[in-house]
Design brief:
There is one protein chain. This protein is of the alpha/beta class. It has two domains: 10-151, no CATH class; 171-371, Ribonuclease H-like superfamily/Ribonuclease H (Nucleotidyltransferase, domain 5, 2-Layer Sandwich). The chain is built from 13 helices and seven strands. The protein has helices spanning 10-15, 34-40, 42-55, 65-70, 80-106, 113-129, 142-151, 224-241, 254-264, 269-273, 276-289, 306-317, 333-348, and strands at 171-172, 183-191, 196-205, 211-222, 247-251, 295-300, 323-325. It has a seven-stranded mixed sheet. The chain starts with 9 loop residues before the first helix and ends in a 27-residue tail after the last helix.
Amino acid sequence: MVGHKKLLTWDKLRRRNFQGPSICHNCFKNEETLQHLLDTCPIANQLWEKVGFRCQKRCKGPGDIIDTIRQWPKIPYDCAILNYMWNIIPGTVLWNIWKERNRRIFKNQSSPIEEIWGRLHGNLRETMLLKSQTKEDLPTTDNEKNILDNWKLELPQEYATHQTMKCNIKEVRNWIAPPTNSYKLNFDGASKGNPRPAGFGGIIRDHNGTPLQIYFGNIGWDTNNSTELEGLWQGLLVAKRLNLQPLIVEGDSQIIINMATRIQNGSQARKVAGSWRLEARLNNIAHELRNHRALSFHHTRREGNKIADFLANIGVESNQPFQAGNLDIIPSNQQTQECENLLQRDTESPDAGAGTSQGVEPHAQHVPPHANING
């Protein structure tokens, strides 16, 4: 849209007879034009300067922002990882400028430059983690190693050598939205004892934080780890049925994330499980991972997994082995409202990144009717 000059900044809206202030809401100093908003505005300029400093490259040329994007060098480095990062930087910078602008207009919320940079950095890191890499893609010169280190992306030290992505275990506290055109699955399990009545639950959201599907179920008496694995497996099935890729998977059990890591990296379920009960569930997960060509696992704290935990507890109380759909499947209006409140808090958290600019819509609009996949 930027390259074709179709971004609806205020100067274009005025030419279409829309009424409203034409000032840039990111600085309140100049008229909002495409060139100003994405290039010369103080916020945009600082972001481009930060990127240039860390990349040790000049980002903006002598022309306007359109020329900058069209003339962006494709392979300025010898290292494949840095070239991939370099090529996703323009879209990531432009996206975060536009999201900050919309956040200020539609939600009356403004963020300091450090917070905007933090969201940009988080988007870039998660996109990098979704990219399959081999050891041959690593930097070979000291200068390029320093550039990658300066970004502090915390990329894994080993990279997958096949198309299925290697699990990357990274810990975050609050929920972070996935990159554009990607999806995030949060799963959890709950057992009222060990073993005791147990259930699982999870949610899949897009880069705006919009729920695409929730699910939960009851599995009778079971252990914590077994219940967590069931929640992960059911979430992978939901993602496959809806054809949601690339997929980021988050859970708050480090044990389960470690198990999934080893399974995705080729370990046999019987060597990972430690018990016949877990072995059967790990075999199910191993089978489903073959269907996901762009998937990464991350450990998160409970703060970043609140909705999945909430749904897992609904699963404990449910008399159904599996239910999936939009928020309408939640048994009571009170629980539905509580889930909506949790969604709202996630999208409004400082770490949410690419959260929606207009908050969470009513739950009936979250998922199209055909997306219900009750098993």
